[in-house]
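re: ur question from earlier - yeah i can do the single chain one, its not a big deal. heres the input i used so u can compare w yours
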Amino acid sequence: MRIHLLAVGTKMPAWVTEVSDDYAARLPSHCQLVIREIANEKRTKHSDLQRIREAEGEKLLAAIPPHSLVIALDVLGKAWSTEQLASQMEQWMASGQDVVLLVGGPEGLSTACLQRADLKWSLSPLTFPHPLVRVILAEQLFRAWSILSKHPYHRGG
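and the output i got, formated as tokens:
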């Protein structure tokens, strides 16, 4: 199984790439995290933000591998504890199906992306900077895997 993190935005700060890649490298090959950046649309103070969100959504949808379980990261999605994420991951691995996590740009995900999603997941009711979302996702995926593997990284009770 592969977990594809499709995120709008390129040219992340070096620390984001370094930390995200570190957590991705810790995952075993049967639970590989693949991070793919999707170019964001140019914005000006007079940009049509709805059109931009839709254009970025089209790029995200085009990048989804066939037959994947698609999960939209959305503030209105369901919040999971780390243990619930581990349970979700266990189901994903059992299915053998690739998983796609969609992270929109500054205006969020397009309606088409939200409609395509099989699940909607909220990391928090807070708004996080997009670079930080990548780090949080990579770390939480590794933590969930560590729970399933009885690895000592997660020390929750």
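The domain at 2-148 is CATH 3.40.1280.10 (Alpha/beta knot). not sure if urs matches, ping me
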